[in-house]
Amino acid sequence: MELTERKKKILRAIVESYIRTAEPIGSKAIAAMPEMDFSSATIRNEMADLTAMGYLEQPHTSAGRIPSPAGYRLYIDELMQDYRLTVDETHSLNEAMTSRLQEFDNAISQMGKLVSQMTNLPAYAVASRRGSATVSRFEIIPTAGGFILVVMTDSEDVKNKLIKLPLHVTEQDLKLLSAVLNASLTDLPAEEFTPELLNRISRSAGPAASLVPVIVDFTTHVLQAQQKSEVYVTGQAKLLSHPEYQDVGKAHKMLSGLDEDVISNLPALVDPGHPMQILVGPENVAEELKDTSVVMTRFDIGDGMQGMIGVVGPTRMDYAQITARLSYFAEGLARMFGKQELPPAHEENKEES
Amino acid sequence: MELTERKKKILRAIVESYIRTAEPIGSKAIAAMPEMDFSSATIRNEMADLTAMGYLEQPHTSAGRIPSPAGYRLYIDELMQDYRLTVDETHSLNEAMTSRLQEFDNAISQMGKLVSQMTNLPAYAVASRRGSATVSRFEIIPTAGGFILVVMTDSEDVKNKLIKLPLHVTEQDLKLLSAVLNASLTDLPAEEFTPELLNRISRSAGPAASLVPVIVDFTTHVLQAQQKSEVYVTGQAKLLSHPEYQDVGKAHKMLSGLDEDVISNLPALVDPGHPMQILVGPENVAEELKDTSVVMTRFDIGDGMQGMIGVVGPTRMDYAQITARLSYFAEGLARMFGKQELPPAHEENKEES
DNA sequence: TTTAGCACTCAGGGAGATTGAGTGCTAAAC
DNA sequence: GTTTAGCACTCAATCTCCCTGAGTGCTAAA
To answer: What is the DSSP string of B14-83?
Structure first.
């Protein structure tokens, strides 16, 4: 069967109505729309065709039609019209961005919160680093009673650790230690930290040998953390305000699935060509998200780092509006963090105790 | 009216039954319990008394009784018996702790997750630092094309930032800069970073003067972050598995209230004398939590840092079990982070590049 | 090809009716 | 004086039945 222009027009009307109201819509209601100049009977015929073609579904005989996942897909790919942000919207987006994202420290989680607020849906934000993760340099700064070990990685990440000094180790010994570390462990991925290598280092380290295990441990952690990406999920409760989650069972299943492990698998799916990606219900790879849609977008923030933000929500969500807002947000971020004078290698270290 | 032993016994039976089943319980069911050797009529009389005294409530005439908040309070303060962890439980708690809390880096959020899992309730974890927040020392490490600024605070926190170097600044200039910073800004709270002071610093800093604002900015951030405590909330979805939140409206209200702002007000309530604190429903200070109870406990992890973990759940929760698990966990943490050879001033720095 | 008309379907909602757990009270038993 | 058995009463929850109305598919006429 052919998908005529009229069929498309009707399909679009159905999808958009359903997005707005979350209620099945019938032939009569469509016929009543100003831009429809056919009778309800005609529309009924067309709807029967669209149902046969798999674009519509009927919850039960005497209900109206709702879009099927295939219907959403078609809508997203072909029928959706760009949503234009209003002046007010750009305004408040701008303001939120500038006021909240000052510190990069927790910018990622802030992003999540922002996106969640502006979409009224749960949002997630992921920051991932690319790159090989090796140490490019060790630095040792003596302090009273100890020293600070500074580890710089090849992706310009810097981490440090305060280490207490055994009594017998002198400042001279630390210099030696530093030299040995820099000579042996730099430019080496963590997997190649073999016991033999560590032994050799301990032997060369003189009086400071006892410190080697602590240092290597820390270094390994740093390198491993380097590969891991951080995931923040916020606004889960927002799901409950949408009618499709009025059933607690469904909401519960959904929300439990919305944890970080599931989310952290999503970024892999983003097609490098298309920064914006929409996964409609059953297209979702994560089993837990089968009932929902995911809209996600990538953004670049300087070298070595890449991020993703996205929202999760009912399949019936306003894709046009959400993609518009996400895009705007992603662009804003890239601009903010891309163009600063100082390199984006912006350092913030958290220390405990 | 007097609260006889028998009344207490009955109240305890009611509370514990309600904790288990979430259903109102009637006189007959209580009389059927093995340890009760009175008839249902007697128990009915006693229940009428307990209701008059405010310890029980009746959802409606023909339902059984449920404990009132005052009833819970009495139960917690006087009737609750210590819950003894089973060997299996201690086992799995131990394992979870050791395997998951290796890195202190994100230990706080890990804690939250663990507690949430072991209680099947939303959990929060807060780490707060005490202390005045001043810089005890600046350190500058030159690197190719820039330098790393290391800021050590008085509470042994260390943070760092990578800064690009303008061409005309030499290594010698950096030494001067470092000296000036250490002379002028150490031991000074951020509020005293006055414009005049900064001007004076810029003037003394020679060719590196242009870097002063960036450095001061960063330092201020570090000091401010120092005061702020981090809050993690996890497992919100777990609420939905409890019968009191089968009503989506209630669940939604609750979950929206469960955000970080509300939670971060809780720690202030912990009585220093009693590390374990239980807030029953209406006793809650946060309006949003009026319908729920909060169990929280403090733990100390070395100098300068203090933490809190807690769970939020229906007023009908198994206080005995939960307090037992939380205590065990808190003790374990204190042990793990308190007794290590190296000082708890364990440094981990996150850097964005 | 479109439209009007009509019989049919079926979820949703409301009005009783029914059930049964639980109560309070009274009077007898201990 | 305390405990218990008995009984009438209450009321949420559940079930049943019926009605309503939105929506459909089909047919026949325009």
So the answer is: HHHHHHHH-S-B-HHHHHTSTT--S-HHHHHHHHHHHHHTTSEE-SSTTS-BEE-HHHHHHIIIIIPPPP
User: Stated in angstroms, how far is B43 CA from C23 C1'?
Assistant: 12
Q: What are the residue boundaries of the structural domains of chain B, listed by start? A: 5-79, 87-122+235-339, 135-227
Q: Cβ of A285 under 8 Å from any chain B Cβ?
A: no
Distances (CA, A) of B127 to B148, B278, B307: 27, 19, 4
Q: For residues B310 and B287, is the Cβ–Cβ distance under 8 A?
A: no
Those residues whose C-beta lies under 8 Å from the C-beta of residue B74, and which sit 6 or more positions away, are B11, B55
Residue nearest to nucleotide D10 (CA to C1'): B62
CATH code for the part of the protein at A5-79? 1.10.10.10
Answer yes or no: are the C-beta atoms of B36 and B30 closer than 8 Å.
Answer: yes
Mutate to test the interface with A, among B139, B158, B186 (most CBs of A within 10 A): B158
CB of residue A51 closer than 7 A to nucleic acid strand D? yes
pTM score, whole prediction: 0.77
R_g of chain A, CA atoms, integer Å: 27
B156 touches chain A (CB under 8 A): yes
Measured at the alpha carbon of residue A33, what is the angle toward residues A28 and A39, in degrees to the nearest 5? 45
The yes-or-no answer to whether A5-79 and A87-122+235-339 have a common fold is no
Q: Count A/B contacts: CB-CB distance under 8 Å.
A: 197
Q: Cβ neighbours of residue A94 under 8 Å, at least 6 residues apart? A: A332
Using a 7 Å cut-off to protein CB atoms, list the covered nucleotides of chain C.
2-5, 9-11, 20-26
* Chain B window 18-77, residues with Cβ within 7 A of nucleic strand D: 37-39, 41-42, 44-45, 59-63
Q: CATH for A135-227? A: 1.10.10
- The minimum CA-CA distance between A172 and chain B, rounded to whole Å, is 18
CA of A236 to C1' of D24 (A): 39
Task: Choose the CATH number for A87-122+235-339 among 3.30.450.40, 3.40.50.720, 3.40.1110.10, 1.10.600.10.
Answer: 3.30.450.40
> Are B350 and A349 within 8 A, CB to CB?
yes
Q: Which residues contact B312 (CB under 8 A, 6 or more apart)?
A: B121, B122, B123, B124, B239, B258, B289, B292, B293, B294
Beta bridge partners of B56: B67
How confident is the prediction along chain A (353 residues), in pLDDT tens digits per residue? 779 999 999 999 999 999 999 999 999 999 999 989 899 999 999 999 999 999 999 998 888 999 999 999 999 999 999 999 999 889 888 887 776 665 555 677 788 888 999 899 999 988 776 656 788 889 888 877 788 888 877 766 778 887 888 878 888 898 999 999 999 999 888 888 899 999 999 999 888 888 898 899 889 888 877 777 778 888 999 998 898 888 888 888 888 888 777 787 777 767 677 789 999 988 888 888 888 999 999 887 665 567 888 999 999 999 999 999 999 888 887 777 654 433 333 334 433 33
Report the gap between the CA of A97 and the closest CA in chain B (Å): 18
